[in-house]
């Protein structure tokens, strides 16, 4: 998300089982924590659901609470088990100088050389990595270039990912991101 997204919120006094009535009234219970004491808030259910649908855990959002703008990232989004609608959100308040840790999704690009030659398939085994960054250097995704797998025995590891300045990957460098599986007699055998 490149534009500033603002969610209007109100302080929440309703807690416990009474929050069901809030949800029936179109309000979403939430909490902001991080820089100050945790604070119970309520947001418009529909606007929040649409915003979170189009954002990731690494997108910085702005919550307008009593005329004060607070920069946050969504930490835990709870959904109903069956209906999948929102039931609660935890937001972590951040400032530009503090370091935050988040899971950043990996986006794969390219095609491995052995797969292009029809020798088998590339198996992506890691979908996200934990990173540490400030709000201004936080990225929404990291790119894993599958073309770096140039032969069947080659494995793409976390250490092979391009990392922008100001971002530190906390996931071990030796963890496998993708590997190649060779076709043998109609079946696929993993190469590691």
Short characterization:
This protein has 192 residues and is mainly β. It contains 3 helices and 14 strands. It has 2 domains: 6-93, Ribosomal Protein L25, Chain P, CATH 2.40.240.10; 100-190, RNA Polymerase Alpha Subunit, Chain A, domain 2.
What does this protein look like?
The protein is mainly β and 192 residues long. It has helices at 19-24, 45-53, 113-116, and strands at residues 6-11, 27-33, 39-44, 61-65, 68-79, 86-93, 100-109, 120-124, 128-133, 142-145, 156-157, 168-169, 176-184, 187-190. The protein folds into 2 domains: 6-93, Ribosomal Protein L25, Chain P (Beta Barrel), CATH 2.40.240.10; 100-190, RNA Polymerase Alpha Subunit, Chain A, domain 2. Helices cover 10% and strands 45% of the residues. It has a 6-stranded mixed β-barrel. It is elongated and about 65 Å long.
């Amino acid at each position: 998300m490149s534009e500033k997204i603002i969610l209007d919120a109100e302080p929440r006094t309703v807690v416990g089982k009474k929050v069901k009535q809030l949800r029936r009234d179109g309000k979403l219970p939430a909490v902001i924590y991080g820089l100050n004491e945790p604070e119970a808030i309520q947001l418009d259910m529909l606007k929040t659901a649409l915003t979170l649908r189009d954002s990731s855990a690494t997108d910085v959002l702005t919550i307008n609470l009593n005329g004060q703008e607070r920069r946050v990232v969504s930490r835990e989004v709870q959904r109903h088990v069956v209906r999948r609608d929102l039931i609660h959100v935890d937001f972590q308040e951040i400032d530009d100088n503090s370091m935050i840790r988040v899971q950043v999704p990996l986006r794969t690009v390219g095609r491995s050389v052995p797969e292009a030659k029809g020798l088998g398939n590339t198996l992506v085994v890691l979908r996200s990595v934990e990173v540490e960054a400030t709000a201004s250097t936080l990225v929404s995704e990291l790119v894993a270039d599958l073309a770096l797998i140039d032969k069947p025995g080659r494995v793409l590891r976390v250490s092979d990912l391009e990392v922008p300045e100001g971002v530190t990957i906390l996931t071990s460098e030796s963890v496998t991101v993708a590997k190649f599986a060779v076709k043998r007699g109609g079946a696929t055998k993993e190469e590691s």
